[in-house]
Specification:
Length: 132
Amino acid sequence: MDWLTDLLWREGRFLGIEWHAWKIVGWLGNLTFFSRFLVQWYATERHKRVVVPVSFWWLSLVGATLLFAYALFYRRDSVFIFAYAFTWIPYVRNLVVHRRTLASTRRCSRCGQSSGPQASYCWNCGQAIGGS
Ligand SMILES: [Zn+2]
């Protein structure tokens, strides 16, 4: 297990990284941003078709914001700053569209399934779902 100790602790530091508040922000951003790929992949495998869950957009937004803060306030690197300066726009837009879709969804009073905003009948049980 010496190899594991050597891998984790280098020069008296965890992973050989000089840890401080901004490094923690940057690594939290990295982990959050990376985790969105696992979440999306899992959702796609589970549904056996390409699925982008709403948590993907939240993880994207939080991860990109942390990395943007790290780039802007700590690294002050124009390339890094530009890479994350505008990515929040599609993330927020997808979250807004998702919220609007949920608000316009019609829920069946008999079986509880959700149908699209144009639906007159439940796709699952055929119950009429009232228009507003
Ligand atoms: Zn129904």
